From TrEMBL:
Transport is among the record's keywords: yes
Secretion signal span: 1-27
Source taxon at top rank: Bacteria
Gene3D superfamilies cross-referenced by the UniProt entry: 3.40.50.2300
Homology family: Belongs to the leucine-binding protein family.
Residue span, Leucine-binding protein domain: 31-363
The protein, known as: ABC transporter substrate-binding protein
Organism this protein belongs to: Amphritea balenae
Length: 384
């Protein structure tokens, strides 16, 4: 895959293409082993389920078309159920027993951050599918990620608030790894945007009613509300806000960028804004948009087989192809060579944006990779 950009763009345009073959045979081994640990069941299943389906769908197609340089791609998967301790054990198993060549996984920030020390110590290239900025800041040699960070999400939201003249914000967040990290970033960045946090509430993963927290927010002088969380929590918060008659602008994070949030929140989701990948509005993009062909191809392929697309499956698409293209460029599954090639990723057109990584940037996305969306009539609409 020496002509990576042309190869990927062509592959995306036909929905399910094959990585190009090179003339050099890869290193010893009958297969290329891609390991993954995902939250396919449990409270974060809305992340892990589309991620696993995406990996399976594309690996099956790659293999049907001859694999990479004649080698089949083998997916070795474990379901964490959203449990960080299980994630650590599965990461160890992938490394020591399964001897995978690369790991593409970690649905949640908690499972990723818990597993990173073991993965870093073992020297296996790891592309996380989780959101926390802590995964890549500071940079760890063997760890990369494809989703936008919580820091980017907070920045994008605050920019939109600035444009609307909002200066006082109520913050509410989940108490999991993603919510805590998003809260920390939101608090840290607020002064840079001239924003004051006038309320700071939180909720637990198993909470089924946040009326008390929302009532506290109602008593503040907030001009808008920002919720950082994922799973059912943000939908409950959204419903409670509307039930209490609060009509303030409501922002969610990219942690709810799937149709499931709209389904769970129902009519209460109307008017909610959030930063998300362009995948959710692929059909609404201008034809001149550099990402559109990739996004439409992925969306059509996924929805033909599984139903409504989410940005989370898209993160898996990006991680898989960044990893496989790195292996192809390295002409080897040597872990150091593959790691170096992942870090050398440049101009990769993915579902999350256009990636250009470096030794100082193991994400490779700018703030322009985010689109500000608003939920209108039960669907996504571009704000900008």
């Amino acid at each position: 895959m020496k002509k990576r950009n042309k190869c990927l763009a062509g592959m995306a345009a036909v929905a399910l293409g094959m990585l190009s073959a090179s003339s050099v045979v890869l290193a010893a081994g009958d297969t290329i082993k891609v390991g993954t640990f995902l939250s396919v069941t449990g409270p974060a299943s809305f992340l892990g389920d589309p991620e696993l389906k995406t990996l399976q769908m594309y690996i099956e197609d790659i293999n049907a078309k001859g694999g990479i340089d004649g080698k089949q791609v083998e997916l070795v998967h474990y379901d964490t159920g959203g449990n960080a301790k299980k994630a650590v054990n599965f990461a160890k198993r992938l490394i020591k027993r399964d001897k995978v060549d690369v790991i593409v996984g970690g649905s949640t920030s908690g499972s990723t951050l818990a597993s990173m020390p073991e993965i870093e110590k073992s020297g296996v290239p790891f592309i996380s599918l989780a959101g926390s900025v802590k995964i890549v800041d500071p940079v760890s040699p063997w760890t990369f990620k494809t989703p936008h960070t919580d820091r980017m999400a907070a920045s994008k939201v605050y920019l939109d608030m600035q444009a609307r003249g909002i200066t006082k914000v109520a913050l509410i967040s989940g108490d999991g790894g993603f919510g805590k990290s998003g809260r920390a970033q939101s608090l840290a960045l607020a002064p840079d945007f001239g924003i004051t946090i006038v309320a700071d509430e939180s909720y637990g993963r198993k909470d089924t009613d946040m009326t008390a927290q929302v009532t506290n927010i109602r008593s503040s002088d907030a001009q808008a509300i920002l919720n950082f969380g994922f799973g059912s929590g943000p939908a409950i918060v959204t419903k409670n806000i509307r039930q209490l008659g609060i009509e303030l602008p409501l922002y969610q994070s990219h942690g709810v960028a799937s149709k499931k949030f709209i389904d769970l929140a129902g009519d209460a989701a109307e008017g909610v804004r959030l930063p998300a990948a362009a995948l959710l509005v692929a059909d609404k993009l201008d034809d001149s948009d550099q990402q559109k062909a990739v996004l439409v191809a992925y969306k059509n392929a996924y929805e033909a087989k599984y139903g409504p697309v989410s940005t989370f499956g898209g993160h898996a698409y990006d991680g898989l192809y960044i990893a496989l293209e790195a292996i192809d460029r390295a002409n080897s599954t040597d872990k150091t060579a593959v790691r170096d090639q992942i870090e050398a990723t440049k101009g990769f057109v993915g579902t999350s944006g256009i990636f250009t990584m470096s030794k100082d940037d193991h994400l490779g996305l700018g703030l322009d990779a985010f689109r500000m969306l608003e939920i209108r009539n039960g669907d996504w609409a571009l704000v900008e």
